[in-house]
């Protein structure tokens, strides 16, 4: 039977699958080294309040910078990290690095720093303690940190996940559901977990058309549901002014997307932030005191 299974697999092993399998193996073999050698880096994508287009936060998005400078995107290595368990050390590094950067950013402006958590991390005992440890290590108030999880996490009926949610809430950490609308969550899950924010998936933003009220039906439903549960809404993947104004009309509170800012390296984000607030770009730009 094992032989038959092997033959069946072989039968569908096209060149495309072959390439993907070897990419995967390469990623698996090199990711551990990348972590040890500090090749991971956080980019930051700005988030804005719809009213006034005010910068209110940033999402930290991990990148893998190869020794030759090439960037590898998370879609290529996060799934592999999840399958191999490497997501635990990787996710812990992300949390620590996000808190370190948050401490620096908060010196410039009040911001909410959002960090993605894998379901694997949520299902592991001790997450709330790790988060508390990083916050206190860098002296970051819990209220400045937002943790994003996907709907699949809400469907986990283990006591552990519910308890972790409760501990994080108790600490004052903000909780958001990422890619909302693409999973299977229901009102009852949302009521049970009581998160602070729903991030409307970019597929629903993408289909918005100015003169077609039906195109906004899902975004509208999510926004009204969030409102009735006292949750905030943020729309992801906003690329055009038309999408922005549709979302504003529907009452969406926050916006993230290429229209207003791409994910960028930390130093670029600091310059972006200073440009927003009118803070001088660097010490050279500042008027030097007369001596
Ligand atoms: P996500 O959390 O939903 O992040 C949003 C993704 O959409 C990012 O892709 C971002 O670059 C992209 N994006 C933002 N604005 C726009 C837009 O206007 N148009 C389009 N087409 N795309 C936009 P990225 O950085 O490649 O990340 C992909 C996914 O990888 C993330 O989706 C998240 O699920 C995961 N990820 C990223 N960083 C981490 C991390 O530190 N930990 C974990 N567990 N997952 C992460
Ligand atoms: Mg996210
Ligand atoms: Mg998302
Ligand atoms: Mg996503």
Please, what is the average pLDDT?
Answer: 90
Note the total helix count. Answer: 13
Distance between the termini: 86 Å
Any idea what the radius of gyration is? 21 Å
The oligomeric state of the chains shown is: single chain
SS class: alpha/beta
Compounds present? ligand C2E, magnesium ion
Sequence of secondary-structure elements: HHEEEHHEHHEHHEHEHHEHEEH
- Strands of the widest sheet, in order across it, are 1-2-4-5-6-7-8-9
Beta-strand proportion: 15-25%
Question: Main beta sheet, described?
Answer: 8 strands, mixed, barrel
The parts where pLDDT drops under 50 for at least 5 residues are 1-7
Q: State the helicity in percent bands.
A: 40-55%
Overall geometry comes to globular
| Number of DSSP-assigned strands | 10
């Amino acid at each position: 039977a094992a032989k038959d299974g092997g033959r069946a697999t072989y039968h569908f092993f096209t060149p495309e699958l072959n390439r993907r399998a070897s990419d995967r193996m390469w990623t698996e073999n090199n990711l551990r080294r990348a972590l040890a050698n500090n090749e991971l880096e956080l980019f930051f994508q700005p988030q804005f309040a719809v009213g006034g287009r005010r910068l209110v936060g940033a999402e930290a998005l991990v990148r893998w910078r190869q020794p030759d400078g090439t960037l590898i995107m998370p879609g290529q290595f996060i799934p592999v990290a999840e399958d191999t368990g490497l997501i635990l050390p990787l996710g812990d590094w992300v949390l620590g690095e996000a808190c370190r950067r948050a401490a620096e950013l908060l010196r410039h402006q009040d911001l909410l720093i959002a960090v993605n958590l894998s379901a694997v991390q949520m299902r592991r005992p001790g997450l709330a303690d790790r988060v508390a440890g990083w916050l206190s290590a860098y002296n970051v108030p819990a209220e400045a940190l937002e943790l994003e999880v996907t709907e699949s996490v809400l469907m986990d009926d283990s006591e552990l996940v519910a308890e972790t949610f409760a501990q994080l809430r108790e600490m004052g950490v903000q909780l958001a559901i990422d890619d909302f609308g693409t999973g299977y969550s229901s009102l009852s899950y949302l009521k049970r977990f009581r998160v602070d924010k729903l991030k409307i998936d970019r597929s629903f933003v993408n289909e918005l058309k100015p003169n077609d009220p039906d195109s906004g039906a899902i975004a509208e439903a999510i926004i009204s549901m969030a409102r009735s549960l006292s949750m905030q809404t943020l729309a992801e993947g906003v690329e055009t002014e038309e999408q922005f104004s549709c979302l504003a009309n529907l009452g969406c509170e926050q916006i993230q997307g290429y229209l207003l800012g791409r994910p960028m390296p930390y130093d670029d984000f600091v310059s972006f932030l200073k440009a927003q607030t009118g803070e001088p770009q660097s010490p050279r730009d500042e008027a030097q005191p007369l001596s």
